[in-house]
Amino acid sequence: MAEEIWDEAIGHVLRAGTAGFSVGARVNQIGAPAFGMFVRAQPRTDDREAVYGLLYDIHIDDDPLVRQLVLADAVSEETIRDQRYHRIVPLEMSVLAIGYRHISGEVRYTLPPRPPLSLDPIYLCGPDEVREVASRFNYFRLVLNAAQVPGEQLLASALLNAADTLPEDERYPFLVQAGREAASLLGGDLTRLDYLLKLISPA
Asked: Using CA atoms, how far apart are residues 137 and 65, in angstroms rounded to an integer?
């Protein structure tokens, strides 16, 4: 059976804090990760917690060769392929922590007691894991109050990603329920609430 995209690490922890972490990868690993996806920092030992988060930024750094190539009159496809697939072009992803899996197996929707360690592998959550983590909305406040992220857009993208893992007849009720939870948190800021609801409403 072919390996699913969530069975293979998309990168490794570069640096981390309690509120989130950064992931390093190669540019040719960017095919699967996307804004608003649920990810998991998996510890290498059983005495630490797996940390769940939402991917909110993908940043591609340059290097001296890229600086030269962007100024060239014409760049061949072969050169671009070589740059993307053979050279080590740095790619960095930023993740907002939204909870963790306690060593008892329970998912807890608070900041983790400790951050992941450098070089811990990062995985995309598979559909079953996304449904489990997204089934409770306790992480909404963490996302909406995080100063470093576009809160409404990140939460909306995460909810739409989670809805896509559900049977078709369960998607709309899930989003309605999520909208009600958001309304309870943003009742004093109708501009933000209206924007979020528009982002998750069916086209």
From this structure: 45
